Amino acid sequence: MKEFDTITAISTAIGEGGISIVRVSGENALNIAGRIFKGKNNKELSSIEPYTMRYGHIMEFGGNDIVDEVLISYMKGPRSFTAEDTVEINCHGGVVATNKVLENVIKAGARLAEPGEFTKRAFLNGRIDLSQAEAVIDIIRAKTEMSMKSAVLQAGGNISAAVREMREKLLGLIAHIEATVDYPEEDLEEITAMQVSKQLEEIVERLSFAIETAEEGKILRDGISTVIAGKPNVGKSSLLNSLLMENRAIVTDVPGTTRDVIEEYINIKGIPVKIVDTAGIRETEDVVEKIGVRKSYEKIEEADLVILLLDTSKPIEDEDREIIGKIKGKKYIVLLNKVDIDEKIDVKEIEGLDPEYIINTSITKGIGIEKLKDAIQNLFFHGKIKANDLMVTNMRHKEAMMAAKESCMQAMSALKGTEAIDLASIDIRDAWYSLGQITGDTMDEDIIDKIFSEFCLGK
């Protein structure tokens, strides 16, 4: 069976570097590595002590040619990442050297791992649960220190511990109810219904709190999709360059310079922000610029946040009014740019927008940039971000918690009439099952396969 194969893959990024690591995991990992390894004094690799390293060379399988100079480390299962015997071959970085080592490991008997298969084995072997496994890929993809901390806490089991505690309580409630049904006594059902309802209320409260963190958690995980919008020459590209602290976008006085969408990730107060500089919105006969303007409107529709720039040195025009209409109903920040020049804008024309998120700026002089960053944090986090809190960052986890909460509320409704106490047990069992989907205790194999297929190769 595939699950018992010895697998291998490159676990470091492919490219030029000092070191690359080829990982081998499975029952025959040490034996396979030994077939192509030649150590100092011709010592057999099978004699290596666990959790030590050995210097030598990888040789062509079945030949005498040296492939690369390497260090080999050996972790004996179950005290390894996969809970299996694991060998890591530390070779020289570089596409050719690394692939050549991998090629010979495969020739020696290993199978190329599928995406996420190392982490999947760690899950299947009981070393980590599913939420911790998902956190591994979040750590790899983290875009800020704050999102990294959140993922590390999840990998450490903070969500798992909370979910397991709730599942144990639910299981205890199921046992309590079933014991009452099996051994009925006078007034016992009424007492049980009251006790169970009280504990269910506590679980619902915990679930509600966790669900409320999901929006903020998703932002830490995926970032805020932010569009910089406005007419040509209002300072959109200058704002992008200022936030990136580099000249990423071309800035000129010629309208229509930015014709396509420019996307970059930046870190604003620990929040990952995918910032999108769009083409200036205006009426134009230029075919290419028209496509850019259409893309700008599409990006505004898709965005989590729109930063609208208005030029205070000019009166508001129809294009400005059209964009203002588009951002109502969305999260937005309006920057009144070029305040260092004579103000000709009529602020009354932007009435209806929240004055808390209207900021005077001069992007070229750095005025208002810090206020913009504070506004972004307040809009999405209502103050300081606390990565140490229990935070749901995965939408799959949120959906499972919402299903569990709904089942608990149905159980509480059933318990209002003591004649339906046995029906409450069914709803509580559903809640227990839903929460088990977070840790993988009650997951279908097909869904588990899909989750791990999204991992990078070698992890």
Please describe the structure with a list of short key phrases separated by commas or semicolons:
17% strand, 6-stranded mixed sheet, single chain, 459 residues, 7-stranded mixed sheet, 15 helices, alpha/beta, flat
Q: Topology, please?
A:
Blueprint: E1 7-10, E2 19-25, H1 29-36, E3 37-39, E4 52-59, E5 66-75, E6 86-92, H2 95-107, E7 111-112, H3 117-124, H4 130-141, H5 145-155, H6 158-182, H7 188-212, H8 214-222, E8 224-229, H9 236-244, E9 262-268, E10 271-277, H10 287-302, E11 305-311, H11 318-327, E12 331-337, E13 358-360, H12 369-381, H13 395-415, H14 421-439, H15 445-453
The profile of the biggest β sheet is: 7 strands, mixed
Give me the side-by-side strand order of the main sheet. Answer: 3-4-5-6-2-1-7
Decide which structural class fits the backbone. alpha/beta
Helix-strand sequence: EEHEEEEHEHHHHHHEHEEHEHEEHHHH
Low-confidence stretches: 249-259
How many strands? 13
Radius of gyration: 29 Å
Share in β-strands: 15-25%
Helix content estimate: 40-55%
Tally of separate helices: 15
Arithmetic mean of pLDDT: 83
Query: What overall geometry do the principal axes of the alpha carbons give?
Result: flat
Distance between the termini: 20 Å
